[in-house]
Design a protein that fits this description.
This protein is mainly alpha-helical and 275 residues long. Helix content is 62%, strand content 4%. α1 packs parallel to α3, α1 crosses α5 and α1 runs antiparallel to α6. The protein is globular and about 85 Å long. Belongs to the major facilitator superfamily. Proton-dependent oligopeptide transporter (POT/PTR) (TC 2.A.17) family.
Amino acid sequence: MNSDGSINKPWNLCTLQQVEDLKTLIRISPIWSTGILLHTPIAIQMSLAVLQALAMDRHLGPKFKISAGTMMVFVPISTAISLALINRFLLPTFHKLTRTSPTPLKRVGIGHVLTISSMALSALVESKRLTLARTHNLTGNSVVPMSVFWMVPQLVAAGVGLAFMFPGQVMFYYQEFPRSIKSTAAAMVGVFIGIAFYLGAAVVDFIRKTTGWLPDGINEGRMDNVYWVLTVLGSVNFGYYLVCSWMYKYQIVENKELISSNNVYPNNSSNEENL
C-alpha cells in the first residue's frame, strides 16, 4: 500500500468477484473443450463430402447436373427447418408432458448423438460407393453409378444436430458466464468452431501422410475408414461430455428475464439433473 492508501501493485491483487469469475470459467472449460472435439468431425465431413459428391452421379433429370458443392446446402436447410420445428412443436410438447424444458446441456447432448449418427451414415454411404467402384473397375476419381442423393441423410443428420447444438451452446454460455464478460459468451461458440476447422485440416493432413485412406484418386482409397474413425472419436468425446455434464452444477440464475418463457432451465442442485 502507498502512503495515500492506494494499491502499489494493483495487478497483484484481485477482488473476490474476479476470483469467483475465474473459478466459473475453470468449471466451464471442460464442457467448452468438448465443443472443439464435437465440431472437428463436422469440419472434416464438410470437406470429404464434396470429394464424395464429385465421384457420384450428380444428374438431376436427363439434362441438369448439380455441382458437388451444392450438396452442402442440405445442412443449413435442414438446420433452419429443424430450428422452426423444435421451437414451434417439440419444445412446447416436451414442456406439456414433463412440465419442464430441456436444459442447454441436454440439447447439446442430442446434437452429439446426431453428429455421431451423421458420421456413421457417411461411412456406410462411402462403403457402398467404394464397393460399386470396385465392381465396375473404376479407378482415380471416376464417377460411380450411384446417385449423389444417397448423401442427403448424412447431411440432414448433421444439420439437425446443429439445430440442437447451436442454441444449446449459446444459451449455456450466456447463462453460465460471469456477468462481467457475459457479452462475450456467444462468441465462445465461434471460437471453438474456428479451432475445430483448423484442427480438422490438421487431422486430414495427418491421415494423408500416415495412411493410404485419402489418395488423390478416392476410388482407390478408404474414405469410409476415415468416417469410422470420426464416429469412434465422436463417441469417445460424447462419453467425456456426459461425464463433464453430470459433474457440472448450474449457477443460480438471478435475473429470470435472461431466460425466455418457453425455455425455463431449472437451477439443478444435483448432478443427475444436469443431463
